[in-house]
Amino acid sequence: MDFLARLLITAVAVIITSYLLPGVAVDSMLDAVMVAAVLALLNAFLKPILIILTIPVTILTLGFFLLVINAFIILIASHLVHGFHVNGFLTALFFSIILSLISSFFTALAKKED
Length: 114
Description:
Blueprint: H1 3-20, E1 24-26, H2 29-53, H3 55-60, H4 65-80, E2 84-86, H5 89-113
Antiparallel strand pairs: 1-2
Helix pairs in contact: 1-2, 1-5, 2-4, 4-5
């Protein structure tokens, strides 16, 4: 699947997750696309560095610390995109979990249609 399709799927998942989760607000669809693009960039460049730096903690927690890294990346994205607001760490943690589930569901549907 190409990058643009994944970006749009993630943007739709951001909108749906913002409706499902109190404490998360997205002002417009354009802001959701911006969030998807910022998350893609942060996941491509910042996340690998954070994973390498936190390998011991990740091993000790059997991988659950990766959820903390995801929540941290969501919080960074909320500071970078002005139309995207997250009310704290726990909200970002739940947002990252729900966002992954919804985007995985839509990606599976898109691959099934191909």
